[in-house]
Specification:
Shape: globular
Helix content: 25-40%
CATH topology of the largest domain: Rossmann fold
Strand content: 15-25%
Number of strands: 17
CATH architecture of the largest domain: 3-Layer(aba) Sandwich
Number of helices: 15
Low-confidence stretches: 1-16, 30-43, 45-56, 59-90, 95-121
Distance between the termini: 19 Å
Structural class: alpha/beta
CATH superfamily of the largest domain: Vaccinia Virus protein VP39
Largest sheet: 7 strands, mixed
Radius of gyration: 27 Å
Mean pLDDT: 78
Length: 467
């Protein structure tokens, strides 16, 4: 019986006589060549400020804060499945079956119509409003008695760093004449910081009416120091379209050079609808080429601390605690991943919500913005010398002015833990030309992928027909 040639015979023949090319080689020669580009992840750029000597702050190992110099933003160490994060179903979850790095998939599946908030979501907003309205202003002498006096100063130090950073990115406009939106301005603690930049106009927005009144009073008490124009708006930025408020304030066409959102954005991630409204309010009047920045909880760090517990749902120190209540240890909802946060003398058991950073990054890209900064506080405050690897603090003079360290030149471990719970972020709004270039790149990538699929389909058909 005549033996039928096998694929092994065609591809592995060792005859000395003129060697015939195998069928697979013949087919591959006839097919077009396609160069498959290597996928590269773009880390957000890091900032560098002038530095001085390094105080003896307690160190936190790099592994304790996953978003660092070596981890791409597209990766999360505690996410194993984030498919369709932006679908209309708010009950979807992020699986946490294993704590490991894994790239997140494309997140471009946003629903056209955000779901309406539920009654329970309204209760959480009311709790936040009530809490901050009831929070009393205290004298400087009284603040010195607080357990977290230096921690407050340290947080102000980090805010000052971010504000100076993004003002510098504006160039000459950052030194005089900028227009700024302060989302979640509170009682006006940043009014003097903005005053140092000599802006032309600052719009302050907060959910708490008492806080806004105190903010307005602070502004009026310093007419020679705060020479910029200011507007004060009471609004829940997660539900209200600020365009309507701008009309009421007679500034309907206002455009911002900077939008600052300090320790507030995570409240909007109670639901998909609230998150989209908050982001829309932040960037809809932002000028192309300008910046939206702020501070948020570092969700990767919080989840890692929670999963490290052998039992219970609470972790913290003598000045703070985080309680995930009855959260599922294997999964968290994409929106509405709730925990309770307490900080001595500042935050009284308020409900807060995790922000999965790749999700935030994707939502911002949908609004035409690119990420330029994402670092934990514990990394952002340092500058690393590339030649020696030595880490030194940025702007120690600012740290001294804000009293962010105690008399021993450091922070207690209990307060340093709170610092590790937060991160800084920054986004730049693309110009129309940049957005068009990005669309062209995506279109070319899609065409390239389609050509590869056609090639593979043709190859498979020819192979099947031959054998």
């Amino acid at each position: 019986m005549k033996r039928t040639s096998t694929v092994a015979d065609l591809t592995n023949s060792t005859d000395e006589a003129p060697k015939k090319k195998s069928f697979l080689e013949q087919v591959s020669e006839k097919l077009p060549r396609f160069k498959i580009p290597k996928k590269t992840s773009k880390n957000c750029s890091k900032t560098a400020e002038s530095t001085n000597s390094l105080p003896s702050l307690p160190e936190i190992e790099p592994s304790e804060h996953p978003i660092n110099n070596d981890t791409p933003l597209e990766s999360s160490p505690c996410v194993s499945d984030t498919s369709q994060l932006l679908s209309s179903d708010n009950n979807q979850t992020i699986q946490l079956s294993e704590v490991r790095e894994q790239p997140s998939p494309d997140l471009k599946t946003a629903a056209q119509t955000p779901p309406p908030p539920t009654d329970n979501q309204g209760d959480n907003a009311a709790l936040a409003r009530q809490h901050y309205n009831e929070l009393k202003e205290v004298s400087l002498a009284k603040r010195h008695e607080s357990k977290i006096f230096n921690l407050r100063g340290f947080n102000n130090y980090v805010k000052s760093l971010t504000m100076n950073d993004f003002l510098a990115r504006l160039g000459p406009l950052g030194k005089r004449g900028a227009t700024i939106l302060d989302l979640g301005c509170g009682k006006g603690g940043d009014l003097r910081k903005w005053g140092l930049a000599k802006p032309a106009h600052v719009v302050c927005v907060d959910i708490a009416d008492v806080s806004i009144e105190q903010c307005r009073n602070r502004y009026r008490e310093r007419p020679t120091e705060l020479t910029y124009k200011a507007n004060f708006i009471v609004a829940d930025c997660t539900r209200v379209d600020l365009d309507d408020k701008y009309v009421e304030e007679n500034i309907p066409d206002v455009e911002f050079d900077l939008v600052s959102c300090q320790f507030v954005l995570h409240y909007g991630f109670e639901s998909q609808g609230q998150a989209k409204r908050m982001i829309k309010n932040a960037v809809s009047h932002l000028k192309p080429g300008c910046f939206f920045f702020g501070t948020i909880p570092n969700s990767n760090y919080l989840v890692k601390k929670y999963l490290s517990l052998s039992e219970g749902s609470r972790f913290g120190s003598d000045v703070y605690y985080v309680d995930f209540l009855e959260a599922n240890r294997t999964s968290f909802p994409v929106f509405g991943a709730k925990y309770v946060f307490y900080l001595d003398g500042a935050v009284k058991e308020l409900p807060e919500f995790l922000i999965h950073f790749p999700l935030l990054k994707s939502m911002m890209e949908d609004e035409g913005c690119e990420c330029v900064l994402a670092e934990p506080f514990t990394d952002y405050i340092y500058r690393t010398d590339p030649s020696t690897g030595e880490r030194t603090l940025k702007d120690v003079e600012v740290l001294s002015r804000t009293r962010g360290l105690n008399d021993q030149g450091t922070l207690p471990e209990s307060e340093w833990e709170v610092v590790a719970c937060y991160m800084v972020f920054g986004f730049r709004k693309l110009t129309d030309e940049e957005r068009e270039q990005r669309r062209d790149r995506k279109r070319r990538k899609l065409e390239h992928a389609q050509n590869i699929i056609k090639m593979l389909t043709k190859f498979t058909t020819l192979t099947y027909n031959y054998f």
